[in-house]
Design goal:
With about 100 residues, this protein is mainly alpha-helical. Keywords: Membrane, Transmembrane, Transmembrane helix.
């Protein structure tokens, strides 16, 4: 799990920094809450022998699994909406530049 989590966090932070340098304030404001959540989630991860976000002994509990799935679906929705927002911004910039 950690092999995918840290690259996700770093890529999200990288894109947000790019938007910050481009003075895209609305986009930065939309991304900052998820960055804060990522930081808090990683900081409060369970202590285990190997690093990870989920404790393998408790993840199969119904409430833990339900919470993890909700988190995954919400983040997927955020990333899909963000993708189309970024795509719209790119197309708008390309068309208005002509």
């Amino acid at each position: 799990m950690l092999q995918l989590v840290l690259p996700e966090y770093f890529l999200h932070l990288f894109y947000t920094l790019l938007f910050l340098f481009a003075f895209e304030w609305l986009t930065v404001l939309l991304n900052v809450p998820l960055i804060i959540y990522h930081f808090q989630r990683y900081r409060t991860r369970p202590v285990m022998s190997r690093p990870g976000l989920y404790d393998p002994t408790t993840i199969m509990n119904a409430d833990q699994l339900s919470r993890a799935m909700k988190e995954g679906w919400i983040k997927l929705g955020f990333y899909i909406v963000s993708f189309f927002y970024y795509l719209y911004g790119m197309i708008y910039t390309l068309v208005s530049g002509i």
